[in-house]
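pls design
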């Protein structure tokens, strides 16, 4: 598997990065995890506008899904070749309604489904292209999922947005790469069931026995170095900060 960080800013974009979006490729199949603010532009640095094979939305906060509204425009009003075929989109209950409402004036209430094939995510195991994926609800104010992606004996786990979560620990068990949010800073923000801080991300990585940890979803108002230091103090394996355009062979 190849992972490309399309955008990794938490909550709102920074001058350097779009919000959450990660491209996962294997066997020529392209799965995009989340499409937050600014991600559609950055995505085009890494793959063609119409070359995605599936999208997984961890939850419906704007910083994880809102660029799907403008991606709808690109697929619905495509100038050459006509309207795009429906792209599989996996998201929580109500994803189609949320995106349609956010767009505000789609030609009809069902226009989104003409270019997106919506699948409602529940906790469980299923296939997306060549990937076997496992999803579980995590600790966030809205219905939110973490995802474990397996291919060719290798494993990537993405936390989505979550506070401390036993379900996340299980999904990350022995993962080769654990892409984990660390939006909060230990001692600065302390709101349960919302986000992890750097220490908690490191502790989750240690409990799960992952082989490497990449911290992501750090907001522009947070010092990433502090969160990185806290994660390294809690987890003995390799830890990196996600950066736009970074790639990982898993
Ligand atoms: Zn978020
Ligand atoms: Zn969120």
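designed seq:
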């Amino acid at each position: 598997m190849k992972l490309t960080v399309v955008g990794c800013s938490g909550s709102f974009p920074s001058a350097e990065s779009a919000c959450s979006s990660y491209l996962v490729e294997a066997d020529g199949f392209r799965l995009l995890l989340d499409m937050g603010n600014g991600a559609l532009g950055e995505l085009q640095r890494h793959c063609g506008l119409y070359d995605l094979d599936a999208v997984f939305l961890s939850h419906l906060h704007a910083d994880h899904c809102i660029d799907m509204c403008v991606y709808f425009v690109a697929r619905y009003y495509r100038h050459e070749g006509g309207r795009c075929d429906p792209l599989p989109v996996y998201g929580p209950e109500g994803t189609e309604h949320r995106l349609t409402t956010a767009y505000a004036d789609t030609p009809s209430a069902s226009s989104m489904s003409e270019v997106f094939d919506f699948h409602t995510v529940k906790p469980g195991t299923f296939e997306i292209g060549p990937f076997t994926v496992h999803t579980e609800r995590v600790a966030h104010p809205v219905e939110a999922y973490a995802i474990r992606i397996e291919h060719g004996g290798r494993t990537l786990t993405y936390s989505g947005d979550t506070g401390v979560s036993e379900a996340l620990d299980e999904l990350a068990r022995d993962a080769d790469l654990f892409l984990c949010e660390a939006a909060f800073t230990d001692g600065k923000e302390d709101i349960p069931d919302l986000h992890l801080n750097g220490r908690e991300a490191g502790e989750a990585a240690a409990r799960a026995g992952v082989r490497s940890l990449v911290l992501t979803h750090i907001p522009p108002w947070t010092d990433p170095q502090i969160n990185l230091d806290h994660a390294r103090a809690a987890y003995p394996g390799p830890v990196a900060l996600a950066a736009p355009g970074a790639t990982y062979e898993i």
